[in-house]
């Protein structure tokens, strides 16, 4: 059995880096949240792809078989993600198209610059994979959905310029007449540097996103806590009023028996102002939820909105109180914002618990049209630049925390948000 050649070593190193680029492509095309298998199984599938793909190329030396094997294996790479067959096939065709374009561009450019020298094949191995990596980074920059974090362009310039510099360095190295072991070592190092840089950059971005999200949730929690304090104070006033109600009845009886009409009116007016409390529409026993929902529903009734309710949840559910407040507060605030712009609006809320599953469905009517940019919704009513779905990203994040699903639909001037959580 012949020892592995220099070109084959370079191919194996380049192929490993190519698989890293394909992994990035899969993550932004299918999204990490759609990964249905354990992360280690995805790594195992990628390793299997590397072994079979490299083996077919090195030992079969049949271009047609290599293409067929690549196609089948890439479909296998998509299996760890939840996706339709059509999306899997589209992803397979897309990565093949990008790969072929990269190899074609690099090979023809190298031939144009250096002629048909023996090192063209090695240059194509290395630089085409750097180009593939570069293109995927650009695609992530423009197509990946980031709801809250807007990364500076300079950051992306830095991360995309590294493969370009690495490619130039590799070409200079291969054409420089250095010993083969030097070429292998340096090329391997450059690939590793690119992988390490992207990994570190991704970690920094993720930590920055988490910090920004936590700050946002903290501000919202403080606001809703303050709101609940106000609501609870009003409820305490009502309880004190109820406690004194017997004494008020005695006073009313005395005033009526003395036929003192003017004093009678004044007393009733003062009593009416004192008991002008908001109605209690929901009584689940969960104080934070009851207070918030009753407060928001009163606002809807004051707007003349037709309200339909179907609320059946226990007093204690296995969700943190802050999480409950953020989800309901944001969704109700968005509904109120839309209903303030219309007359005779409609609002319906279903909030049901059944055997460890929570179903929350909120529907409200709206005027104008709804446009979507990423995961943010914009209403064309009045100010088309004002977000309609403020806070939906925070809601989505909390829903995913409980392994739930958030679905948003807009049709026939109705805005529907449905949440399913498992607790």
What does this structure look like?
Residues 145-150 and 380-389 have low confidence and may be disordered. The protein has helices spanning 6-30, 39-60, 63-78, 85-114, 120-143, 153-175, 180-243, 245-257, 261-274, 287-302, 321-339, 392-401; strands spanning 306-312, 346-354, 357-365, 370-373, 376-379, 405-411, 414-422. The chain is elongated. It is of the alpha+beta class. It contains twelve helices and seven strands. The chain has two domains: 6-207, no CATH class; 280-422, 2-Layer Sandwich (Heat Shock Protein 90). Helix 11 links the parallel strand 1 and strand 2 (346-354). The strands form two sheets. The chain has a five-stranded mixed β-sheet with strand order 1-2-3-7-6. Strands 4-5 form a two-stranded antiparallel ribbon.
Helix share of residues?
55-70%
Class computed from helices, strands and strand pairing = alpha+beta
N-to-C terminal Cα separation, in Å? 59 Å
Oligomeric status: single chain
Shape: elongated
Task: State the major sheet.
Answer: 5 strands, mixed
Unreliable stretches, pLDDT < 50, 5 or more residues? Answer: 145-150, 380-389
The number of helical runs is: 12
The ordered H/E elements are HHHHHHHHHHEHEEEEHEE
Count all strands and give the number.
7
The share of residues in extended strands comes to: 5-15%
How many structural units, i.e. domains? 2
- Spatial sequence of strands, sheet with the most strands: 1-2-3-7-6
User: What integer is the average pLDDT?
Assistant: 77
**Gyration radius from CA atoms, angstroms:** 32 Å
């Amino acid at each position: 059995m012949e020892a592995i050649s220099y070109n084959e070593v370079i191919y194996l190193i380049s192929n490993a880096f190519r698989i890293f680029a394909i992994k990035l492509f899969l993550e932004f095309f299918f999204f990490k949240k759609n990964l249905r298998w354990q992360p280690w199984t995805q790594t195992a599938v990628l390793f299997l792809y590397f072994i079979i793909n490299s083996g077919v190329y090195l030992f079969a030396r049949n271009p047609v078989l290599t293409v067929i094997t690549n196609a089948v294996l890439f479909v296998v790479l998509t299996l760890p993600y939840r996706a339709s067959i059509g999306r899997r096939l589209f992803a397979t065709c897309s990565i093949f198209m990008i790969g072929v374009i990269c190899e074609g561009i690099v090979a023809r450019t190298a031939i144009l610059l250096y002629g048909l020298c023996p090192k063209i094949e090695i240059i194509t191995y290395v630089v085409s994979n750097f180009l593939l990596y570069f293109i995927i980074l650009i695609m992530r920059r423009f197509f990946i959905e980031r709801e809250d974090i807007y990364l500076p362009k300079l950051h992306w310039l830095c991360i995309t310029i590294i493969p370009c510099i690495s490619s130039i360095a590799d070409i200079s190295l291969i054409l420089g007449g250095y010993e083969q072991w030097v070429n292998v070592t340096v090329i391997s190092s450059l690939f590793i540097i690119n992988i390490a840089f992207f990994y570190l950059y991704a970690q920094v971005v993720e930590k920055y996103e988490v910090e920004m999200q936590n700050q946002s949730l903290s501000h919202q929690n403080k606001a809703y806590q303050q709101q609940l304090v106000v609501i609870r104070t009003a409820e305490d006033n009502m309880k004190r009023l109820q406690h004194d109600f017997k004494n008020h009845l005695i006073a009313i009886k005395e005033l009526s028996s003395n036929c003192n009409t003017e004093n009678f009116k004044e007393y009733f007016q003062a009593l009416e102002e004192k008991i002008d409390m908001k109605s209690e529409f929901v009584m689940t026993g969960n104080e934070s939820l009851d207070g918030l929902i009753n407060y928001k529903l009163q606002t809807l009734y004051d707007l003349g909105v037709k309200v339909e309710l179907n609320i059946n949840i226990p007093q204690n559910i296995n969700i943190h109180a802050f999480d409950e407040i953020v989800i309901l507060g944001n969704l109700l605030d968005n509904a109120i914002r839309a209903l303030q712009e219309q007359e005779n609006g409609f609002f319906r809320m279903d909030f049901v618990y059944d055997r460890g599953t929570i179903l929350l469905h909120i529907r409200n009517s709206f005027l104008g049209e709804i446009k979507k940019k990423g995961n943010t919704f914009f209403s064309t009513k009045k100010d088309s630049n004002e977000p309609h779905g403020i806070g939906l990203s925070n809601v989505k994040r909390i829903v995913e925390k409980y392994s739930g699903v958030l679905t948003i639909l807009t049709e026939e001037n109705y805005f529907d948000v449905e949440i399913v959580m498992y607790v």
